[in-house]
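Database export, one record per block. Field names are fixed; values are copied verbatim from the stored entry.
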Amino acid sequence: MKTTFKWLLVLSLGIALLGLLAGGVLWQEFIAQPDVSISINGEDLDISGLQALPWFTGVFGILAGGVVVCLVIPLVLLFSVGFPLLLTVLILGFVALLMLSLGAMFFSPLIILGLLLWLMLRNKHQKTRSRANPPQQQASIAR
């Protein structure tokens, strides 16, 4: 991972931890103050009933949320975005390979004629002349 992504991950986990801590502090404060009431759509929320919440249902809710966040959402993204992209790339690659094969098959006589012409018309003497007279190096004396 790059440094920027590491910092973003650490900051987002820190913000999530601060939000969890703030929620716990608010819950404890609401339970400690008997005269505080929360009203949602004109109905009062029973704060004392929140204190009697069994622990196993809370743990089960946290585990279910964790499974959804860690397993379900990545799989949905993988199959809804990644799999169609993979299929599209594979199909386009197959079509490109098919077109290259078809072009090589149609133009193979021209390719062979071009290769034969190149072999016949290339200048062989230029290479031998350059090998016969190698460049001479000048001697220098360092003082």
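Remark 1: The chain is about 75% helix and 5% strand.
Remark 2: Residues 56 and 62 are 10 Å apart (CA to CA).
End of record.
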